[in-house]
Amino acid sequence: MKKALGAILLLAGIGLMLYPFLIERQQAKGTESLEQALALIDTGEPANLDELPVSQKDLEGTFSLEIPSIGLEQYILPETTEENLNLALTQIKPGQVPGQGNFTIAGHRGWRDGRHFSNLSEVAIGEQVMLHADGQTFVYEITESAVIPPTAVEVLDDQPDVDELTLITCTVSGKDRLAVKGKLVDSP
Fold first, then answer.
1. From the first residue on, what is the mean pLDDT of each consecutive set of 10 residues in the chain (188 residues)?
2. Alpha-carbon torsion (53, 47, 130, 185), positive or negative
3. β-sheet bridge partners, residue 179
4. How would you classify the pairing of strands 164-170 and 102-106?
5. Which CATH fold topology does 57-186 show?
6. What pLDDT sits at residue 8?
7. 67 to each of 18, 72, 116, 130, 181, how far by Cα in Å?
8. What is the pLDDT of residue 163?
9. Which of 13, 94, 123, 185 is deepest in the core (most CB within 10 A)?
10. Annotated domain spans of the chain
11. Closest CA to 80 of 182, 173, 168
12. Catalytic residue among 165, 168, 170, 178, which?
């Protein structure tokens, strides 16, 4: 009886340890499919979207974010859903226009280094980030970084005559949010 219980607990422990790796593998396959579909759309060839939970319209509205200081280059899907957040970064507010108002982006923190916004807390004040949209690049300079409660949604609001970028992710504990803001310093 004790041996059977021990074996069950051992198998359960192994299963719990493997679960994050299985989820990561599934998300990596989705991200790879997303990248392949976007590459096909760029060349004008039809893309097979059967394996993706996003539409071709969403793919055509995809931008990308580059943060050189942490080696981040990620796609930004136009709608925040759990499926989209598992694949890429997402726009928080619908219908945003790069370089106008407060362009807001959400991303999972990720448990593995280098995935989504796992290293966002390392971005320092004064560093530049680039938002690539429709063949144009918008450059933002980071002005602030703060841990905020999840209810502090005013961080997403547009400010009069201010064009900025707000990047949001969870803290390590998941209880709070990290908000990193930057002001537009160069646009086409």
1. 72 65 59 58 55 60 90 88 82 91 90 74 96 93 96 93 95 91 93
2. negative
3. 146, 168
4. parallel
5. Sortase; Chain: A; (2.40.260)
6. 75
7. 31, 5, 11, 7, 13
8. 96
9. 123
10. 57-186
11. 168
12. 170
* 132 catalytic per annotation: no
pLDDT in tens, 72-127: 998 898 888 887 777 789 999 988 999 999 999 999 886 655 568 889 999 999 99
Provide the pLDDT for residue 58: 60
Task: Determine the Cα–Cα distance for residues 109 and 128; give it in Å rounded to an integer.
Answer: 20
Which of 99, 107, 108, 165 is the catalytic position? Answer: 108
pTM score, two decimals? Answer: 0.75
State how far the Cα of 10 lies from the Cα of 56, in Å rounded to an integer.
45
